[in-house]
């Protein structure tokens, strides 16, 4: 983080400016695209300045690192608590990918069970239960309620992720929530861990790829178990900006 973001954004600027691979607008990444835009004549006017580069870079790092790693900590916790589900994931990986090549995103379409498990991890973990607060910029009305300009709006994502009218077993880890009778993957509308609307998570696509690749790679290589000398970890969460699992220990047994 220190490497990329200094007080005035110059570290990130110097780093990306030295990367000479970009001669067109097909830039390598958002920060690189930003640096290219800094060179435009009217850059400052459009907001492409070093201070904004610093803010955008730190936003993406802050929003993108803890969220994905916390979800993966939940993932491994659910796997050690539910070995029978873990074993079904192992079987699907062995069938579709095998043990010798790395998983790719192309595999996802052929792995409904693993995909369902990852979605159920996100639903149960509910890592950002109240999303990010927003403020109305004009008077508005929602389902008969008048909301004046300047009102702070806090969404309750838990209310949909654990909605008893949608989910068969809202408070249990049950991957079948995301499978139809034929075992095909389905995604109910109430699956909203990334929130909804214009200000929904900017990194959703990236996060989904990260979760699939990291989770599948770990499961391809290891079986995760509770160490013999450890108690069964608790499944409830502790809240500090995000819902995290309590610290737990696991043993990773090479497959
Ligand atoms: C499992 C992983 C993730 C989850 C569950 C998640 C969830 C969320 C949620 C609930 C919001 C608030 C949306 C709202 O207020 O309506 C949000 C905002 C945001 N997320 Fe994520 N996120 C994840 C990963 C990422 C990644 C990997 C990135 C980028 C690298 C990212 C970038 C952002 C940004 C920039 C915002 C603010 C968007 C805005 O205000 O317009 N997130 N995320």
From TrEMBL:
GO cellular component: endoplasmic reticulum membrane
Membrane topology note: Peripheral membrane protein
Necessary cofactors: heme
GO molecular function per UniProt: heme binding; iron ion binding; oxidoreductase activity, acting on paired donors, with incorporation or reduction of molecular oxygen, reduced flavin or flavoprotein as one donor, and incorporation of one atom of oxygen
Subcellular location: Endoplasmic reticulum membrane; Microsome membrane
Gene3D superfamilies the record matches: Cytochrome P450
Binding site for heme: 201
Keywords: Endoplasmic reticulum, Heme, Iron, Membrane, Metal-binding, Microsome, Monooxygenase, Oxidoreductase
GO biological process: arachidonate metabolic process; xenobiotic metabolic process
Family: Belongs to the cytochrome P450 family.
Name recorded for this polypeptide: Cytochrome P450
